[in-house]
Each structure stands twice: as structure tokens, then as C-alpha cells.
From TrEMBL:
Spans through the membrane: 46-63, 75-93, 99-116, 123-141, 173-199, 220-237, 270-289, 296-317, 329-349, 358-378, 523-544
Top-level taxon of the source organism: Bacteria
Keywords for the protein's UniProt record, in alphabetical order: Membrane, Transmembrane, Transmembrane helix
Coiled coil: none
Lineage, broadest ranks: Bacteria, Bacillati, Bacillota, Bacilli, Lactobacillales
Protein name per UniProt: Cell division protein
Natural source organism: Enterococcus viikkiensis
Record carries keyword Disulfide bond: no
Entry annotated with the keyword Transmembrane helix: yes
Length: 549
């Protein structure tokens, strides 16, 4: 069987997984859907209209001028925007994006295992099972963005195979972590943590530590150039604004895989059985395993432990241990464990006797997993007609039936106006009060904005309203340190800023119009341009190498 035949099988399976949605013509609207759909609508409209606003949202998020994409997967957000434009409706986008997340996951794990010299039949069955795990279905069932990072993680682990073979791939390491940084920052951190022990082992086995360190520094410089847009945004915004980061989960342990996050172990149903069987086989055949396979087992085990309540997550949060709050949910560590688990399991099976029996078992479990995955998808789709779209901090502005219909409309903004969520992530915090920031956003942006008309003209967000009498008013937009407000060509200063940065300004009797722009320092444009040139040169180089082969 030729190599491309295996990729064709994975493509057909990815297509099979989206068939229930195509047949039923229904959606699965998870907790994170509205947040990400607003992100991608923003980039889609910027591309469609040719009006680019790298930092602030001028189309999505209620045209509030808030910052999201600049510090949350900026380049990948624009790629998703292209996908939204191609799809033409949120239903079609969901089908296409689900297909791609399945396909990328299967193909990337198959590539990793093939690169590690695992037999193609073993790699195929492992890739199919990986496609059915919750690490991938997290996007399909809940629109959790971790799945996009996880689907590409196997490709980003190709460098550890090179380090095993006594090569430090400078370009691969830099590009892999840079790609992850442009998609999902936490996944990029996890990939870096996976690299660390393999890099140390590589350095120990090398004759010269100086060459090892030089190679690492070269890779670091390349990475810095390819991810400079993200780090620049973090520095620029955080140096002048105190941002509302994603909420701190005070009960993190409740979302560990051995407690409230146990569903991560149930996709596919046989995953827990495969975990136990692989663990027992690993112990029994430990003496026969290669050094590299043992390393993968140990590192994957560490990620597994981190995903459980064995780690005192609640205690760490209560004592304000740095960076712990950024994790939010321990089950996120199960995603890199899943990738490493399939890697070490496939490598281990290569050293087992009776390989045909093992291969038959893998094939059987994979086929059952396909059936179970289809069953879960059908069950979730059946909820579409009956479940309420309204939830905590989610507001349905039209009748429920009309709101559902809006997700099939060609007017992408219609659904985002019909169903709104008051996510406060990355809003500026100007002063502390007891008000929940979700509630602040509801009151100051969602509730108030209906009296205001918002359009985009000449690259600026324009807000208009009619006042009965002169005085002051709270304008439903967000002001950061570098945000500028204009009345005509004259800059105006807010009289006050709320806890989340909505400005109070003077108004005249009659029609009032102001414009909003984000004006960063001049050097920012040059650095962003340099980062773009870096990615362009990289794609040219990859294309050259590809066609040369």
C-alpha cells in the first residue's frame, strides 16, 4: 500500500466524521463557540473589506474596539478568517473546520509515527484512534481551541526524533514552537517542555556542549523572529494596560481527569483499557524497550500526573503560585499526554512478539472507536433543536428558532447579533471594584450599545448617536492606553473611564459622531512587517525544498 493511500484513508475517515452533521443539518454550539466565532468573524471581515485592524476589533465583539486576536493566535486567526469566508455561513464553517481538525490530527500523528520508523499499518490505526480522542473532539463538541494545537502537536514533535538520531534540527525546532505560538500559547509552552529533556539528553550524548548551545541559540533567534508579533503585542499592551486575563479557576482539581474531567478518558471508550494494557506491557517488556521509548514513557507519565488531582491544584491556586492560574483546567495536560501516549505505544508494539495479533487488536479497537465517535456526534447533534441557546452570560436577542436559523445565514454577523456572550478576556482593568467583569461587559457594552450606531469608515470604527440634550454619556467601546478618540479631526479626551475602559465623554444635543483608532508606536509597524517578511521567506524556502525534491 503506497504512502498516499494511508493519507487518503485518513481523509475519508475525517469526511465520515462530519457526515452526521451534513445529513442532519444541525450544529453543536459549545461554551467557547461565540468567543472564537467573533474572533474569526473579525479577521474574515477585515480580509473581505480590505480594512485591517491588527490590534482592536472593529467588526466582531459588538464592534467594541477590544483587543483579542493580537495576543491570541494572531496569524492563525486570519487563516480561520479565510476559512469563514470560504464557508459563507457558520454551519458550513463548523463542518469544514471540524473536517480539518480531524484530518490534521490523523495526518500529523501518522507522519510522526512514520518518521519514528513505526510500521505504516500500526501508524494508521494509532492515527485513527487519535482522531477519536477528546483531545481532538474538544473543538468539535465544545469549540475548545486546545484541539487545534493538539492536532498539530505530532508534527511539532518531529524534532525529538531528530534529536534521538543525534541531529539538532535548528529550523524545525524554531518553526514548530513558532507555529504553536501563533495558534495556542499554552500548547506552545507544553511543546517546549517536551523538548527540554530530549534536548538535555541530546547535549549529554554530544561531544561538544558549545556546539549544542550554539544550535539552541540559533533556533531561539529564529523563533523570536517568527513569533515577534505575539511577544510585541504582549509587551505593548501589558506595559500600558492591566488586562483581565481568562478567569482563575479556584477549584482546579475539580477539572482533573480523575474527577470532573473524566470524560477525557472516555473518548474513545476503550482508551482507558488501552492505557492500562500499555502500562502493564511497558513494565513487562521494559528491558526490551529502546532508550528513546523509555524517555517518551516517562515524560508522558509526567503529563498524565499533571492532568490528575494528585497535584494539589487548589492549594497551588490558593497560595498564588506563579503561572498556575494560566492553566485553568488540569485536563489540558492530557492533550500532550495523548500524543506522547500514542507515540510510545506504537514504538513499544514494534518490539513485541506476535505483532500480527497486536495489529489485529489495534485495528479492532480503531474500528470500534470510529463507531463510538459517530454515535457521540449523532447524540450531540440531536440536542440542537431542543436545547436552549441561552446560558450563564449568554443572551439570545431574538426568538430561539430565529436564532438557530441565523447560524445558517450568509450574513455572518446575524448569528453574532442574535446570540451574544459577555466574555471579558483581555479587557483593560482601570480600577478594581466588586463588579464581576462579565456583568460589567453586559451592562456597558451589550446593554448600552443598542442606542448607538457603529460603522467602519476609512479604517476607523465610527460611533454615532442622537442625544436629546447636552451632557455626558457612556460610549460602548473599550479604550486602551493607545486607543484614541476623535470628533472629526480633533482628538478628544474621555472625562472618565469605567472599570473595563468604556469612556464617558461630552455630548451635544442632536447627532454625535466619534471615531476610534488604536495608535501604537511607530516601531510596531516595522516589527510586524519584519515578522511577516520572515514567514514569507520561510514559505518560499519550504516551497523551494519541496519542488527541489
Amino acid at each position: 500500500m503506497k504512502r498516499w493511500h494511508y493519507y487518503l484513508v485518513l481523509t475519508l475517515i475525517a469526511g465520515l466524521f462530519v457526515m452526521p452533521q451534513l445529513v442532519t443539518h444541525k450544529l453543536i454550539l459549545g461554551a467557547d463557540a461565540l468567543f472564537h466565532y467573533n474572533r474569526f468573524y473579525e479577521t474574515a471581515e477585515q480580509i473581505r473589506t480590505g480594512t485591517f485592524s491588527y490590534f482592536i476589533s472593529i467588526f466582531g465583539f459588538q464592534q467594541s474596539g477590544r483587543i483579542v486576536n493580537a495576543i491570541y493566535g494572531p496569524i492563525f486567526s486570519y487563516l480561520q478568517g479565510v476559512l469563514v469566508l470560504i464557508a459563507g455561513s457558520w454551519f458550513k464553517y463548523q463542518v469544514i473546520s471540524n473536517f480539518f481538525v480531524y484530518l490534521i490530527a490523523g495526518c500529523s500523528l501518522f507522519k510522526l509515527l512514520s518518521y519514528a520508523k513505526v510500521r505504516e499499518s500500526t501508524a494508521l490505526w494509532s492515527a485513527i484512534m487519535f482522531m477519536t480522542t477528546y483531545s481532538i473532539n474538544y473543538w468539535v463538541l465544545n469549540q475548545g481551541f486546545t484541539s487545534w494545537g493538539t492536532s498539530l502537536m505530532p508534527l511539532c514533535l518531529l524534532p525529538i526524533i531528530d534529536m534521538k538520531n543525534q541531529r539538532f534540527p535548528i529550523l524545525k525546532v524554531a518553526v514548530s514552537i513558532a507555529v504553536m505560538t501563533q495558534i495556542h500559547m499554552l500548547t506552545a509552552v507544553m511543546v517546549s517542555l517536551i523538548y527540554l529533556p530530549f534536548f538535555i539528553d541530546y547535549g549529554i550524548r554530544q561531544a561538544s556542549w558549545s556546539k549544542t548551545v550554539k544550535d539552541f541559540l540559533k533556533s531561539l533567534v529564529l523563533y523570536a523572529g517568527l513569533s515577534s508579533n505575539v511577544w510585541l503585542s504582549f509587551f505593548l499592551i501589558n506595559s500600558g494596560d492591566r488586562l483581565k486575563m481568562p478567569f482563575t479557576n479556584q477549584q482546579m482539581s475539580e477539572k482533573a481527569i480523575d474527577l470532573g474531567g473524566s470524560y477525557w478518558l472516555q473518548y474513545p471508550k476503550f482508551l482507558w483499557l488501552l492505557l492500562v494494557a500499555s502500562f502493564l506491557l511497558c513494565i513487562f517488556y521494559w528491558h526490551r524497550l529502546e532508550r528513546f521509548t523509555k524517555q517518551v514513557v516517562i515524560i508522558s507519565g509526567l503529563f498524565f500526573v499533571l492532568s490528575t488531582s494528585i497535584v494539589p491544584w487548589n492549594w497551588l491556586i490558593a497560595h498564588h503560585v506563579p503561572f498556575v492560574s494560566l492553566v485553568q483546567f488540569p485536563f489540558r495536560f492530557f492533550a500532550p499526554f495523548t500524543v506522547l501516549f500514542f507515540l510510545f505505544t506504537a514504538l513499544m508494539f514494534e518490539h513485541l512478539p506476535r505483532k500480527k495479533g497486536v495489529l489485529f487488536l489495534l485495528g479492532t479497537i480503531s474500528l470500534i472507536s470510529i463507531g463510538q465517535n459517530l454515535q457521540v456526534l449523532i447524540q450531540e447533534l440531536q440536542r440542537w433543536d431542543n436545547q436552549s441557546l441561552a446560558a450563564k452570560h449568554v443572551f439570545v436577542r431574538v426568538p430561539e428558532a430565529q436564532a438557530r436559523t441565523s447560524f445558517f445565514a450568509a450574513d455572518l454577523d446575524l448569528a453574532l447579533r442574535s446570540v451574544e456572550k459577555s466574555s471579558p478576556d483581555y479587557l483593560p482593568i482601570y480600577h478594581d471594584n466588586n463588579e464581576n467583569k462579565y456583568v460589567s461587559y453586559e451592562k456597558q457594552i451589550l446593554a448600552e450599545r443598542k442606542d448607538f450606531s457603529k460603522t467602519v469608515k476609512h479604517g476607523r470604527l465610527q460611533v454615532s448617536w442622537t442625544a436629546q440634550k447636552p451632557g455626558t454619556t457612556l460610549v460602548p467601546v473599550i479604550v486602551y492606553q493607545n486607543t484614541r478618540l476623535y470628533a472629526g479631526n480633533q482628538e478628544i479626551q474621555p472625562q472618565a473611564l469605567s472599570d473595563i475602559g468604556t469612556p464617558t465623554i461630552k455630548q451635544l444635543a442632536g447627532k454625535n459622531t466619534i471615531q476610534l483608532r488604536y495608535v501604537p508606536p511607530v516601531y510596531v509597524a516595522w516589527l510586524l512587517f519584519g515578522c511577516g517578511i520572515g514567514w514569507l521567506l520561510l514559505f518560499i524556502w519550504i516551497g523551494y525544498r519541496f519542488f527541489r525534491k
